[in-house]
Amino acid sequence: MADRESLTTTSPFETMGLLGSLFFVASIGVVGMPPLSGFLGKLLILDAIRSHSFWYLLWALILGTSLLAIIGFSRSGSFVFWKGRQGNLTRIAPPTKSITVSLAAIFSLLFILVGLTVFSGWIVDYLDRVAEQITHSQGYVDAVVKPIVEGQN
């Protein structure tokens, strides 16, 4: 079992609820729970391995590790953000540039995560076309080599 000493709590502060909520939303995306893009990616992986002869073992592995990730994120999040909330809130100075920049970065990444979810159909179609071009490169080779060969004649 993991040693709880590797995670530490701090005294409660005013923005702890906000940071905990952001951790919660990011965790949902990372472990691949609906409705975010991690879930859609996981479905694409599960769909791709259906034709494998040992698909059920791979599904069990993927879904089992997802369950372990959910347990790990929920335990660490509750330990860091909610078990440290006992006591009075510590008054901290108004947000400084560093906390503002940090929150802007977090919100930007979460915005990108939501964007990947909203535009997932378009992104998957685009990546399918890219994969098709990579795996069938003869058209590219013909397009590059043919003009060179014709120019030598």
Structure commentary:
The protein is an all-alpha fold and 153 residues long. The protein folds into two domains: 4-118, no CATH class; 121-153, no CATH class. It contains six helices and no strands. Helix 1 (16-31) runs antiparallel to helix 3 and helix 1 packs parallel to helix 4.
Helices, strands, pairings?
Layout: H1 16-31, H2 37-48, H3 55-82, H4 97-118, H5 120-135, H6 138-152
Helix pairs in contact: 1-3, 1-4
Provide the gyration radius in Å: 23 Å
> What's the helix-strand series?
HHHHHH
Helix content: over 70%
- What value does the average pLDDT take? 82
Instruction: Give the number of domains.
Output: 2
- Quantity of strands, as a count: 0
- The rough form would be described as flat
Can you count the helices?
6
Main beta sheet: strand number and arrangement?
A: none
Summary, kept brief:
By secondary structure, this protein is an all-alpha fold. It is built from 6 helices and no strands.
Features:
mainly alpha; flat; 2 domains; 6 helices; 153 residues
